Amino acid sequence: MLSKSKSLVLVSEDEGGKSPIVPKPRFLEQLENFLQKELRALGVMEVTPSDLRLQAHREVFEYLIEDFKTYKPLLAAIKNEYEMMLAFQRQQIRQLEPLKQMLVTVSEQCDQKIMGLRDEERNEITELKNENRGLYARISNMVNEQKDLEEQVSRLQETMREENQKYRDECDARKLLIADINELRYQHEDYMASKQNATEQTGDLEDPVMLRIALNKARADEKSASVRLSEMIANYGDVIPRRDFEALEKNHKELEQQNETTQEDFKKLQAEHNALLDVQKQVTTQRDEFYIELETLKRSSTPRPDWAKCADCVQGGMERWKELSEGKTTNELVDVLLQEMGSGGFVDSSGAEYFDGQGTGPEVPKYLSFEGQVRNRRLGKRDTLLLIRDIWREKAVADAESTDGVRSKMSDFLYSYLSQRFALEQMVVEWGYNLHDACQRYAHDDAIGLFWKVLNDQADEEVFHQQLHLIHGILTELTKADMEQGNVGKLPRPLFQSTLEAALPGIEEEAMTTIMNAADTELDQKDAPDIDYKNLFTEDDEGRTGPFLDEVKTWLKQQKDQYMQEIKDQLEDTDPVTVDDLKRALTLMDPEIDSSTLETYVRWGFALAPDADLTEVEPMEQSKLMDRLANGNIKRVGKKL
């Protein structure tokens, strides 16, 4: 126990286990009275979870900490840990609120589906009950028929029993008759023996003669009955019941109908087969003729020009050139080129000697801020790609060295990049205008087009870094697998494919086959057992990759397009779209998305600043919103539903 001097005292059982009563400390009484007073004032005397009760106890605990100077650090640390845990739990609750709302929405949808299923089950149960009643009626009819058949059987058994009794009676009568006949024969013999010395008396023989005649008659009737019985057995021994005969007759008719239908189908198929044989003969003849014509043309033809080179010189790039040249012959392509030259459809690679400055207003980008004329250097596509590649490289270094961890704006960085590279302000402006013009002329190229959109804030810069991150992740996984195999620089084909599937989660079998074929094409090793994977990640001086990485980028774009289409389907006819509509669509399509990523997607879609209030955003047209999302770093966070 604790004594008055605040020291521990042992109390033995010999003393009865009782200790002198120690009065409660004054400070403890004051704290308890203060706590009761605060709880009573706040109206939370009942012991239930409450923030008010927690605040009152927190104040009492602080007074206790302040009074106990020796234990103050420990008690303060304990209080701090509890406060940190409470703050963490509140943060977790706030983060789980959107999930709770999503669960409520999903729960409502599930309830609606359950009600629909219940209605379907109710209708199905009603149909089953009606069918059950019909089956019960059918069973009742069959039971009645069975009872009728049983009654008929009992009657037939009774009739057979009577006939059997008659047969037995007749058999017994015949036996008695035979016994009587034998008795009469014996009596006749005795009588004839006793009268053999008597005189001839014809009148006395009358009775034995009549008996002999009756016996002969009875034997004749018995013989006739036996003959009739034998005829009946012979004529009706193989007779079957009528119901069996009718069932067999019905089955026979059905088989005859099926046989007729089968014969007709066979005749039709035979006619179609003969027609197909004729068509096949004609196609074979045409194939042989075309093959002979092809061989003749091969011997007399000259090498065809690479018409794809014209795509860089036509307005619209490769897509428009494909539309113009699709299905055209060489002569027709020459006519198309002449027509484009006449209508001014070619890209002006020379242009004017000077560009007109756009001024120095606030709406003009800093790298174009200039008044006057700027010399046109006529940048080609190759030089443009080399310059853009160097800009991306330098910007990645600058962003990595940034202290705040935020990527700088591309238009601002371009000015600083040109300023570092060229000492003269005139050269900075000159290269800025020439790069601006080259990006406009070659915007149909994927690399230049992406840089142009990022420069004009039409696309998110993270799209470019996401592609690099994906490619780097694939190379890292392949390198790890190679190190496990002994770092030989090559991977077996099955291991290479399994590593790719792990690095590209959710990839379909068809897409994987396309990527593997692209790797074989790039390495020129069709179905090779080992793959030199490092050669698949090389770039030329313009930053262009091979078919393998092109197919990987194509798959990434297809995944993004599919995700965008699912969001559009979820929005349905909602136009214009609000922030809540977009959040609901993203949450339903990707339940595993976190709140920060969801907010990032929404801010990019509505073109909002990081500190803008989401509750004051005006609705946006669905088409514009989908264009913004398509140019952003939007991807699925969780697994596909």
Write the layout of secondary structure elements.
Elements: H1 26-42, H2 51-67, H3 72-194, H4 206-236, H5 242-300, H6 317-325, H7 330-343, E1 354-356, E2 373-375, H8 381-400, H9 410-421, H10 425-441, H11 446-455, H12 462-484, E3 491-492, H13 493-503, H14 509-523, E4 530-531, H15 547-571, H16 579-589, H17 595-605, H18 622-630
Antiparallel strand pairs: 1-2, 3-4
Helix pairs in contact: 1-2, 2-3, 9-10, 12-13, 14-15, 15-16, 15-18
Question: How would you portray this structure in words?
Answer:
With 641 residues, this protein is an all-alpha fold. Helices cover 68% and strands 2% of the residues. The chain is built from 18 helices and four strands. It has helices spanning 26-42, 51-67, 72-194, 206-236, 242-300, 317-325, 330-343, 381-400, 410-421, 425-441, 446-455, 462-484, 493-503, 509-523, 547-571, 579-589, 595-605, 622-630, and strands at 354-356, 373-375, 491-492, 530-531. The strands form two sheets. The protein has a two-stranded antiparallel sheet. Strands 3-4 form a two-stranded antiparallel ribbon. The radius of gyration is 54 Å and the shape is flat. The chain starts with 25 loop residues before the first helix and ends in an 11-residue tail after the last helix.
**Poorly predicted spans:** 13-18, 201-205, 345-350
The amount of helix comes to 55-70%
Please give the number of β-strands.
Answer: 4
Radius of gyration: 54 Å
Could you say which overall geometry the principal axes of the C-alpha atoms support? Answer: flat
Q: Strand order across the biggest sheet?
A: 1-2
**Number of helix segments?**
18
Largest sheet properties:
2 strands, antiparallel
**Estimated structural class:** mainly alpha
Mean pLDDT: 79
Percent of residues in beta strands:
under 5%
Terminal CA distance reads: 65 Å
String of helices and strands? HHHHHHHEEHHHHHEHHEHHHH
